[in-house]
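sry for the spam today, last one i promise. struct tokens for design, 705 residues
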């Protein structure tokens, strides 16, 4: 009897190793449940609305009077609904920005909404956002700036207590929260209760992040923590909205200085773009970018709202690379999302629905070169086309480069491929290729690296085929692939590109030939009756150029937009701090080439201020200046504090503007400097009083409007 029982156990064990094959062993570090929830969220919006909305700044100084904060139509419901229309699943509310003004009735500072006229000092915008999210089925997150340019105690241990108390109020009164958002802006000049000075901190230790994060873990255990160093979600390292072509969900952050502990605002942020293969932590990337050029509303940027197809491109480069897309929304001075922004969001949401409404691979016959233990019922490829994100096709441990054949049974036309891994078992696959059976043979049509929680391969052209093949070309362990889909993005024309040379000649081009390019110079959208572009034209006085591609019967692209100042044909350098000739001459500051630089960078220390003065060739009416920083993702020489002067004789100078270029390192767009009143001058001087890094200044382009 004992002998028979032993034989039975052996047979049972053999069955478990065959048809009852165990799941693959997890690979590397793994996500928490909160991180899985975040991955499934995919897209959310961060909302910047506060006193800066009324001062036309990106970063307030901290001395703003709360009385200026008085929206006429504030509607959290309208703002959250605009995000939902775009397909976003949550919002992160900026409860306090660097200026220190709190949009909830906090007990920690007098610099808050109760001192504003809004609802006679009885308002609580966080409560209104909470109610709006609950009504619309959206998730809520909060951002409370660690830096506070208003608080007199900033830089001391006392302020850290205040900051933690603010977080406790937010976590206790406005949950449940899906994310607690923290950025890296730490220390610098500010109001600080009237001191008006520079406060410096040890970014590695000042906030005691481990202790601060423990508050989140206790009060909002299901919320992920976002920051330069996570610990749950990392910053991607740019504010352009895209992750690296290869983007790992694992990451090991490093401090800029050897031996120091990395922290928010104190990390080699460029490493976050791709992450770290086999990194120490599961810490996927968030890609943050604003719908407008800036994070706060500026009326002058109404024409700069990103188009639906621009947002779709960012979607592929963020969510489609395993990251999340965090899109900045900027309510206007009424306290609502502007109609221009709502239109773009809604059209983007519709594009997403159209593209991913139908998985054309459903109903296909899937044949795998290997199935784990031969157990198709448990690990077969049929799980790739179900609606479960965590059911999966797995292979035997020794099979790391399997193939999958997809028989669609009839020709299907598609241009997007979606792949996902069951990330509960880690990020395993390192590279794949996709083939289509065309003209009697297999032809590769796409490839990708770092699959992870979501990978979208956007093809450059439509493919029509009835049979496909997926090849896993690199993986250190057995695969656990959970999703295979093919989709059809709607047909559209590519918007043209508008540029101008130093002679003032405007050129409009398209990537592929079209029937016609039509344009306007009066701010209106181009229509089929607008002038046809045939050759470059001169725009000496500056203005707004809008252009569209037209094809066939009624088919048209989105509108392209460019704003130009005065033409720089007759501009000359009057005087300038000696340039570094290895980098570029002073004339590069106005050559209409954003890739060239005027640079004074040197290896040895440099004196500030540094300047360049320009002869416009004749007296001009001036309403604004523009400074474009270098566009090569380097920080050396980027000016963050400035003065503009004017002159009519090139000798006697009058200061007409001064200030700081806030957030210019992370968001290196052209920095507009609007004058309080129009002036007339033949000469102007741009003076740099401080730079982000380096011994000298760099200028990609200066403009006069």
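last one done:
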């Amino acid at each position: 009897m004992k002998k028979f029982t032993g034989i039975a156990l052996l047979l049972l064990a053999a069955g478990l190793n065959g048809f009852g094959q165990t799941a693959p062993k997890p690979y590397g570090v793994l996500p928490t449940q909160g991180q899985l929830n975040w991955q499934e969220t995919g897209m959310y919006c961060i909302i910047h609305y506060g006193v800066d909305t009324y001062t036309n700044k990106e970063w307030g100084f901290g001395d703003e009077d709360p009385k200026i904060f008085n929206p006429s139509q504030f509607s959290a419901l309208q703002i959250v609904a605009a995000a939902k229309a775009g397909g976003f699943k949550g919002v992160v509310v900026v409860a306090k920005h660097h200026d220190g003004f709190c949009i909830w009735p906090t007990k920690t500072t007098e610099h808050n909404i109760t001192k504003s006229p809004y609802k006679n000092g009885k308002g609580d915008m966080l409560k209104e956002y909470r109610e709006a999210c609950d009504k619309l089925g959206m998730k809520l997150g909060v951002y409370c700036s660690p830096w506070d340019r208003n608080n007199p105690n900033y830089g001391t241990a006392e302020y850290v207590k205040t900051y933690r108390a603010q977080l406790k109020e937010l976590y206790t009164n406005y949950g449940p929260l899906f994310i607690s958002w923290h950025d890296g802006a730490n220390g610098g000049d500010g109001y600080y209760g009237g001191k008006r000075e520079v406060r410096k901190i040890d970014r590695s230790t000042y906030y005691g992040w481990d202790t601060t994060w423990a508050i989140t873990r206790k009060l909002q255990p299901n919320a992920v923590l976002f920051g330069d160093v996570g610990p749950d979600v990392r910053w991607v390292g740019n504010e352009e909205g895209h992750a690296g072509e290869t983007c790992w969900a694992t990451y090991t952050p490093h401090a800029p200085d050897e031996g120091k502990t990395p922290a928010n605002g104190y990390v080699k942020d460029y490493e976050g773009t791709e992450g770290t293969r086999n990194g120490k932590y599961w810490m996927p990337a968030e890609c943050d970018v604003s719908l407008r050029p800036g994070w706060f509303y500026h009326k002058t940027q109404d024409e700069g709202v990103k188009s639906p197809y621009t947002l779709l491109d960012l979607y592929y480069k963020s969510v489609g690379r395993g990251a999340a897309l965090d899109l900045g929304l900027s309510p206007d001075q009424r306290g609502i999302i502007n109609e221009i922004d709502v239109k773009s969001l809604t059209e983007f949401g519709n594009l997403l629905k159209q593209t991913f409404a139908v998985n054309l691979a459903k109903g296909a016959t899937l044949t795998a070169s290997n199935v784990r233990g031969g157990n198709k019922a448990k690990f077969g490829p049929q799980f790739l086309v179900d609606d479960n994100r965590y059911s999966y096709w797995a292979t035997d441990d020794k099979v790391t480069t399997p193939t999958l054949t997809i028989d669609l049974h009839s020709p299907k036309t598609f241009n997007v491929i979606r792949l996902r891994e069951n990330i509960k078992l880690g990020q395993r696959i390192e590279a794949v290729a996709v083939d289509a059976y065309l003209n009697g043979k297999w032809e590769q049509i796409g490839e990708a690296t770092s699959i992870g929680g979501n990978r979208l391969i956007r093809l450059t052209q439509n493919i029509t085929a009835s049979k496909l093949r997926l090849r896993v070309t690199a993986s250190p362990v057995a695969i656990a692939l959970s999703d295979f889909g093919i989709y059809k993005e709607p047909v559209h024309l590519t918007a043209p590109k508008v540029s101008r040379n130093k002679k003032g000649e405007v050129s409009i081009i398209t990537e592929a030939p079209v029937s016609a390019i039509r344009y306007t110079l009066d701010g209106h959208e181009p229509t089929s009756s607008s002038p046809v572009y045939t050759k470059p034209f001169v725009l000496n006085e500056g203005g707004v150029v809008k252009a569209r591609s037209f094809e066939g019967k009624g088919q048209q692209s989105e509108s392209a937009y460019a704003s130009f100042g005065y033409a720089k044909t007759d501009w000359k350098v009057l005087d300038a701090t000696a340039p570094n000739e290895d980098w570029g001459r002073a004339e590069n500051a106005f050559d209409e080439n954003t890739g060239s630089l005027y640079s004074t960078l040197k290896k040895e220390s440099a004196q500030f201020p540094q300047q360049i003065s320009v002869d416009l060739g004749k007296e001009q009416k001036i309403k604004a200046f523009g400074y474009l920083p270098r566009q090569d993702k380097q920080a050396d020489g980027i000016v963050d504090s400035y003065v503009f002067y004017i002159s009519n004789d090139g000798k006697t100078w009058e200061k007409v503007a001064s200030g700081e270029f806030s957030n210019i390192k992370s968001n290196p767009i052209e920095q507009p400097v609007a004058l309080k009143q129009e002036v007339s001058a033949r000469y102007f001087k741009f003076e740099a009083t401080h730079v982000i890094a380096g011994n000298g200044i760099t200028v990609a382009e200066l403009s006069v409007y």
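The chain is about 15% helix and 30% strand. ok im logging off now
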